[in-house]
Every structure is written in structure tokens, then in C-alpha cells.
Design goal:
The structure is a homodimer. By secondary structure, chain A is α/β, with parallel strands linked by helices. Chain A has 7 helices and 7 strands, in the order αβααβαβαβββαβα. The longest helix of chain A has 30 residues, at 2-31. Mean pLDDT of chain A is 88; it is low at 215-220.
């Protein structure tokens, strides 16, 4: 009789142990946050057609002479930008790359909230896409200071940071040695969101007045 | 009698449960890697004396007119560079900042292995510190291509990545709007180490020959 009870006790102990292990494993998997995305892209990127990224529904429609179907640093960058579902905050020194401009305009047509901060000198040079974005209705602010706004970062959906040495120009993408770091790590993303908001407020045209005392019209 | 056994069974179950919980918690703490350093620095940095960073043993010895004892973005950057205990791999487009040059030379005097990759055009401009480092005995290689080596990153001890928009110039530190990202995240550090090694090998002077067919002397 006593032996039977011992077997039962041991059996129940084993059941309790296995159940609690299973419960803890489930809790561990539920509570542990998934590892955030961390990716590094180096440039110059291979030159390849990126049409399929803009029109994924008809990937074989392009007849241009560039290689097709290649996944390059540049196509990865475009994909990350186009992954936006709510917002894009872009803080960029030089912006003349037509494909990147097309990506930003594609987001605009999908109703994404876009804010662009740029350097006042470089936004005025020939080939700059800043005027194109502004004309399309995107809210653009240019740094008013005498120094350079030298950042090259974007924050997608307040979640994904894209930053590095790469200006958004054709030379940077196709010729220079450059890097882009893409991360969802909150400790890295949060400071950039905060700095973007600070610079955005700092360059609010409503804070500036013409020399004749009139308020400047808010720029688009 | 049966009631007593039930109490014992329940008691043993509770003991088994608590022991397994404790064991799992211990395993969780042992196996979970410590969170890697992630830090973001924004510039322009406040202008302050950095003498105490170079001579921490006599922090109050400096009599210059700059504010003392301030922890700024620039002092943080210097501290991260000076934290090197074995190696510094630097890949920098423009390097003219005297304090940053002093930090690299301080590492050299401590026997740290230093490799510097720079852009051939910018390393030759007035005020560049690349020649100073080379004369001091640091192994420097300059990009031979016709394009720009536009990176601005450093890897400390194959462990810590320092990267961003900031060139190592006085203007970048004290005037421009810039960012520096400091991280120990292996998924971000590893690709930069690999890219540095690739560029280092690519720009090995032994691979180049003078137009007269003689091998170039390795540059220091």
C-alpha cells in the first residue's frame, strides 16, 4: 500500500514538474521580445533594375537593359523605405537620387505622413529632389542656420531607423564607398525620433519673420 | 490516512514546482546574453575643455578658458575611442580634428594596433591629420579609386562600432548637425569589421605598381 502511494507521489511530482516547465517555457517565449532587425548595407551598390520593387505585381514587365531580379544594397534600402505604413521622417543633407525620390512619392500616394528636413544650401542645387517633393505636397523644412544639416537618416513608422554615411544621391549609391545601418533597436531609434522632432520644431517657418517684420509663409 | 497522503502529494508537487521555477529562472539569467551597449550622440557638441579625458589623473590641472568638467557628445566620443585596449580600425573620409588625432596618437603610445583607411583626396588637404598619423608610425592606407571613400566609422577592439554622419573635423564637431551611433550589437559590428578588412586588403600598396613597373613602397 505504502509503495503504491510512493509511486503515486513520485508520478504526481513528475507531472507537476513537467507542467511547470511547459508553463515557464510558454511564458518565456511570450514575454521575451523578438530580436529587433539589425542590418548593414554597403555601397557602391551593384547597378540593377529596381522596377520590380515599385511594381511587385508585374515583376517581369521591365524591358530595360539593366540586370533584373538582383537583390542589391540599393534594392534593400528601397524596400525598407517602401515598408512604411504610417509615417516617414527624413533628415537628409543631399537628396538628388530619382529612385529614392520616386519611393518617397510612392509613399505619399499611399497616404503616408511624410516630413522632410534638409540643408538649405544643398536643397537649392541643380538636380535636388527637395523642390520636387515640396511641389508634390510634402511638408519640407530646410535648416535655417549658417551651418550644415549634415544628417543622413530616416525613421519609418517611428520604428525603423535608416542611417549612415550615404547621402541620397546617385554618386553615393553607385560610386562611393558608403554604409547604411538599418535597425529596429529601440535604444537607437528613440534618440533619432527625439532629435528629428527637435530639429523639426526648431526649423518651423512660423518661428521666422521676414526682415520687414512680416511672418514668413509656412513652406510646404 | 488518505488525507495525510493527499497533503504530502500536494506538498511535494508545490516543492517540485518551486524548485523547477528557480532552476528555470537561473538558466534564463545564465543563458540570456547581457544587453549590448547602444548609444547615440548628436552634434554640434557643446564646446568644453577635454583635457581631463586625456589626463584623468590630474583633472583640475587645465587653466584654459573653456568650461571644465562638462560631459558632452564630443567627450563621450573621445572616451569611446580611448577605451581601446587592443585595436582601433578607423575608416574616415575627412580627418582634421586635432583632439581626435591626439586620441589616436595616445592609443599608439599605449601600444594599441591602429589601422587607418582614408580618402586619397581628403587626406592631402591642408589641415588633414592623416600625414601626422603616418609620420608617427601608424599604418595608413588611402583609397586608390577615382570615387570617394565616404565612410566615417571606427571599430574599437573588434567589439565597439562608432559610425554616423560625422567626419573627424572641427566643423563637424562644433558646428554641423551630425550624429554618431555607438554600438556593441554583434549583428551591426561584424559587417563593419568584415568591410574594413575587405577595404584594407583592397588598398594594400603591394597590389599597386608604379607606371615604370616597380612595386610601390608600402605606405606607413
Amino acid at each position: 500500500m505504502a509503495a503504491m502511494w510512493t509511486v503515486k507521489v513520485v508520478g504526481l511530482g513528475v507531472v507537476a514538474l513537467s507542467l511547470s516547465l511547459e508553463l515557464l517555457w510558454w511564458l518565456h517565449r511570450r514575454l521575451r521580445p523578438g530580436k529587433p532587425l539589425n542590418e548593414v548595407l554597403f555601397f557602391p551598390s551593384e547597378i540593377a533594375c529596381v522596377e520590380h520593387i515599385f511594381t511587385p505585381s508585374s515583376p517581369s514587365s521591365c524591358l530595360c537593359s539593366l540586370p533584373h531580379g538582383l537583390e542589391t544594397s540599393f534594392s534593400r534600402l528601397l524596400r525598407h523605405i517602401l515598408s512604411a505604413s504610417t509615417s516617414l521622417d527624413l533628415c537628409i543633407f543631399a537628396f538628388s537620387n530619382m529612385d529614392l525620390s520616386r519611393a518617397v512619392l510612392a509613399l505619399l500616394s499611399r497616404g503616408i505622413t511624410i516630413q522632410v528636413l534638409s540643408d538649405k544650401d544643398y536643397s537649392a542645387i541643380t538636380g535636388s529632389q527637395i523642390g520636387v517633393l515640396r511641389k508634390a505636397g510634402i511638408c519640407v523644412r530646410c535648416d535655417k542656420g549658417s551651418v550644415h544639416m549634415h544628417h543622413k537618416f530616416a525613421v519609418v513608422d517611428d520604428r525603423l531607423l535608416i542611417t549612415g554615411s550615404l547621402n541620397w544621391t546617385l554618386n553615393a549609391v553607385q560610386s562611393n564607398m558608403e554604409n547604411i545601418l538599418v535597425t529596429e533597436e529601440p535604444d537607437l531609434v528613440r534618440p533619432f525620433i527625439k532629435e528629428f522632432n527637435r530639429l523639426w520644431a526648431l526649423n518651423d517657418p512660423a518661428r521666422y519673420r521676414h526682415s520687414n517684420g512680416q511672418k514668413l509663409e509656412p513652406l510646404r
